[in-house]
Amino acid sequence: MTGIVEEFLGLKEGSDADILAMQVGDFYEFFADDARLVADELDLKMSEKSSHGSSYPMAGVPLSELTPYLKSLVERGYTVAVAEQRGEDDTTREITRTATPGTLLEATGADARYLVAVVRDGETYGLAAVDVTTGTFRLTEVDEERTALAELGRFSPEEVLPGPTLRGDDDFCDAVRDDTDATLSVHGTEAFAPGKATHRVREQFGEGALDAVGVEPEGPGTRAAGAALDYVAETGVGVLSSLTRVQPYRADDHVALDPTTRRNLELTETMRGERAGSLAATLDHTVTSMGARRLEAWLVRPLQRRAELERRHDCVDALASDALEHDAIRETLDGAADLERLAARATSGSADPAALKRIVDTLERLPVLRERVTSSPSLADSPLGDVLARVDAEAAADLREMVDDALADDPGSETGIFARGYDGELDELAAEHDDLVAWFDTLAERVKAESDLSRVTVDRNKTDGYYLQVGHSQTDRVPEAYREVKTLKNSKRYRSAELDEKERALFRLEEERAARERELFDELRAEVASHASLLQDAGRALAELDALASFAEHASANRWTRPELRDDRALDVAAGRHPVVEQTVEFVPNDARFGEGRRFLVVTGPNMSGKSTYMRQTALIVLLAQAGSFVPAESAEIGLVDGVYTRVGALDELAQGRSTFMVEMQELSNILHSATEDSLVVLDEVGRGTASDDGISIAWAATEYLHNEVRAKTLFATHYHELTDLAERLEGVQNVHVTADERDGDVTFLRTVADGPADRSYGIHVADLAGVPDPVVSRSRDVLAKLRADEAVDVRGGSGGSEQVVFDLGSGELRTDEEEHGEDAADEGGDESQETLDPETEAVLDELRHTDVNNSSPLDLLQRVNEWQNRLD
């Protein structure tokens, strides 16, 4: 076994990582099973390392190219330990970090990467969410499991650390996987211990941190925070110093959006899992990655705080009203570096000279932006100045000047980092180095002048060092001071004692200069890291300005209007539009009006006419207003909602043992349990996944419960026209329908919403539009006409024969014409001819007759219906 492979296997055995990348010289190497795995996953070329009769698979990547491979492996779900060379002889190696999905520092782009620790203590859940790439640390406590899962879903974590009481809870862990696709990792139980966790939090954020943020010591929130900090420290990311503040928040500060609603409204990705076509992609005109991250966070975490929303609307209003300054601000922001992530890289020791130069470039934009805001009358009167005022302008200027004075205009990665005059010792080494380089640069010309050589070159490689190269035809003219060191096909290489001496001096100077530059750069990077909090403040301010400018850009380009926020439960949208659909088609605007006597709208109309779009656009308009954006409407008065809940279609989840109807009922159950009178509920076709009589009963009962008990603003699309009768029986229910125009058998969907119920659904017309064969469409029209006229329908057999049947629209039963007449005769003959029911069926019917639907919960009714069906079967 080779020494290197033995060392590799020993380090791997001592880690919990799936893969180990070990530095060997200028490469990170993988051996044995790790080499096979990495070669397969990343399409790397695999070789062998042999020694003492044994061979081991080997694969490697250059030091400078580890990041993309590391990122790719972690995103595939692997944990990767990284071992670096240590010691003067570079023969000692130790694991310096372990990259996991939630602690991958090398994240790129706009997406946040959260690690979330969750602790359950009784009925209370503590959540601590950390993004190591930006230094964000958020903390909250909630009282219900569904709220905890909803909060987890908002963060879309890459990795979740469940506390000890949650690890064996399969339902909770399965829900986390289903809703977030996160990796669930087990961390040491002791890290969640109340005492250790509290000490860890106070050590990180200060003795008074917990009191300042209103979180109880040793409580579930503190325990989650302590475990998250411990995990980050254990993985060796080295960014704990970038976690400068804990940001507490209350779940009820934000609009409740469960995973189903986020998916149905396509906030960050479409139903097909694509970002293009989502609300976030449509509104994203940001010019920085931190701005894009902030905009998406606003969309998935809409606020209930009116004052903050009014402030955002004021900023958007000001930017939209001054097009020239708005464009100038966006131009200034364009190309700004992600200061939040650069702060984290500086504290972790991974920021290179180019990264520090980008910090300088970005900090230079702050005074320019302040001048833009203060010089414009419309902007100066807005809260935009307050956004930039959160950054200590003097401290930012001092940091920028210090780093700018230190770095060269185009700093190298290892040498040439610093400007002349920054360090006297380095300047002396650089001057000596430059003199020696000049000696070698002019050596060829001096040799030519001192001899009869007409062609001579001086070059350098790793094997031979510096050498003089002369063609074979002129080797007899080489000065005697030079000795031959290598013969090539067409030339020979020579060195001299003077060249040897100069080379040794140059190599010594290169090492000394590189060591001095490394020392100085480490000091400079540490100084920048000490200003991590300042850089984070600046990054957050620029991110907010970029997101607000993006809102203003979209509002101006698409004729969006500022919503009027209200403290009551009003919702009055005039000529509203769907923010995404209007980008691709000529859109027909519609009103959405709620108020006294109008808080539950039963929406009817043809398939494909726009019912679902109408309901979703109403929900999105409310959500946009509470994200701080303008809205696609002529006007909008919006009473702030505490949650948006949707049930829009369902897919079979057979792998989890859940059918379409089961998913539908679970989503309905969540809404009926979670919504309040301050919520907005969107329901589409509840009850369609089961038999008609069951479906109507469930839809009816759910309508009554939402109207009588929950009292939320509700949009309920249905094909059960029986529900339209509720408008005459329940004071808050009103009918609206999407209109259609039928002339000479042709139907045109007008996509206009009007009061009152629809007369029918035009399902056959939709079948025709979908390309169903003409014979089927024609036969459908014939059957429908006879059914509506209560006439017998011929059942056409494959052999050409036919039988007349009658369909009872009330009972849903299909009978032959002979059976129909036979039953009529039996009815005339008296009760003796009627079928006698068995005792079990009679018992079920008796229970059904005595069930108080109005005073039973929907879930109870569902359970009882299921029980009755089983007994009847």
Automatic annotation (TrEMBL):
Protein name: DNA mismatch repair protein MutS
CDD domains: ABC_MutS1
InterPro entries named in the record: DNA_mismatch_repair_MutS (IPR005748), DNA_mismatch_repair_MutS-lik_N (IPR007695), DNA_mismatch_repair_MutS/MSH (IPR017261), DNA_mismatch_repair_MutS_C (IPR000432), DNA_mismatch_repair_MutS_clamp (IPR007861), DNA_mismatch_repair_MutS_core (IPR007696), DNA_mismatch_repair_MutS_N (IPR016151), DNA_mismatch_repair_MutS_sf (IPR036187)
SUPFAM superfamilies named in the record: DNA repair protein MutS, domain I, DNA repair protein MutS, domain II, DNA repair protein MutS, domain III, P-loop containing nucleoside triphosphate hydrolases
Region (Disordered): 813-844
Biased composition (Acidic residues): 816-844
Organism: Halarchaeum salinum
Similarity comment: Belongs to the DNA mismatch repair MutS family.
Coiled coil start-end: 499-527
Biological role: This protein is involved in the repair of mismatches in DNA.
Domain DNA mismatch repair proteins mutS family: 679-695
GO molecular function: ATP binding; ATP-dependent DNA damage sensor activity; mismatched DNA binding
Top-rank lineage group of the source organism: Archaea
An annotated GO BP: mismatch repair
Assigned keywords, A-Z: ATP-binding, Coiled coil, DNA damage, DNA repair, DNA-binding, Nucleotide-binding
